[in-house]
Amino acid sequence: MAGMSMKACVTGVGNTEYRKQINRSAEVLAVEAVVAAAADAGIDPQQIDGLIPYPGHIGDDVIQAALSLNPRFRATIDMGGCGAVSALRLASMAVLSGAANHVLLFRGLKGSSGARKADRPSFLPGQPFRRHLEYVYGMNTPAQRYAVLCQRYKHEYGLDRRTLGEIALAARAHANLNPIAQMHGRDLTMDDYLAGRMIADPYTLFDCCLETDGASAVIVSARNDARDIRILSVAEGQGASPDDTSNREPFLDIGLTQAANRVWNDLGMGPEDMDAAMIYDCFTFEVLHQLEEAGFAGHGEGAALIADGGIRLGGKLPVNTHGGMLSEAHQAGLNHVVEAVRQLRGECGARQVENARLIAVTGWGQLGDGSFAVLGGRNV
Questions:
Q1: Orientation of helix 161-175 relative to helix 284-293, angle to 10°
Q2: Who's near 272: CB < 8 A, 6+ residues apart?
């Protein structure tokens, strides 16, 4: 990706409002976000000639028909939430090779008012294992599956519930500076967090990401206009075992472990150079987990980074300044890319990271697939 860094840019981002219930279809929401992203990029929507949708949800045919597109490049990335960041890599390749001029990444979800998570088809790998050894014992939700990994970490390194609580509180504090966030205007205290009802031990209500109605879109192009945000490097990877989370060795090894190392090596920089990070926060522990695997803290040391406002605005490493999936919206990670772009443009108002130049973005998918990107502003 080093040879691509001067040309492949995020040129436009867009989104709808994020709410618990929106009385418009997912298809309509997706089109609204795409039109907003095209306007932000300064192009006519019909100039979009590359499409990367989110598998299992709104397909590229919907966008094609609604906006009369004639794409030259179409692809899907079957890596769950990892795909939002991985798509930056594929889109960069497409625009720099000439396969397309403007590649669209989009999400349109009715995650709250539509089918509940446990009722949707599963796209996880290792389905025979899931059907015969997990589902029959009632382990069929992400919270149950990933709670086991958190419990293992707690056993090995120790983990205070208040550390997870601070992750949730930091996300909510940021969301309360973000008018479009689903949880904007809804304060959260540590007492509230500790009183949250149990979901899957140790995860309680506020450890779990939102379910959201809404849509988001990102456009990647081969140009370098003043507002364009450069895709400096992107990598992806899988953990030691792609079809399990809790029995791999080393047990913390996920795709991000390899992906982040590749990006740091590619760029000749490291975690200390980042001004903020957008971490895929499906659950609170996964913020701590990914911060460690990306090198922002050593194993067992993430709690120290998180303590005393370390991941809040003004802290050592502001994390998820939009509120993340815990408090802004569940957009399968694409809203993290949108926020990174707006931060690097200096468009975030009260939640703006001062002089933001470099921002890391992570993706988490399936049972530990990982992706990692560093985006840079014009002042890099």
A1: 100
A2: none
Closest CA to 289 of 306, 270, 274, 276: 306
d(CA 334, CA 215): 9
Full set of structural domains in the chain with CATH: 2-114+213-375 (3.40.47.10)
In the structure encoding, which two tokens stand for residue 243, read together? 């079809």
Considering the entire predicted model, what is its pTM? 0.94
By residue count, the chain amounts to: 380
- Residue 325 has φ and ψ, to the nearest 5°, of -75, -20
Per-residue model confidence as pLDDT tens digits over 62-80 = 999 999 999 999 999 988 8
DSSP state of 133: I
Distance of CA 166 to CAs 160, 285, 335, Å? 10, 11, 21
Let me know how many helices (H) and strands (E) the chain has, helices first: 12, 11
Question: Where does residue 141 rank: exposed (0-12), middle (13-18), buried (19+ CB within 10 A)?
Answer: middle
**Chain centre distance of CA 135:** 27
* Interior angle at CA 221, CA 374 and CA 44, nearest 5: 135
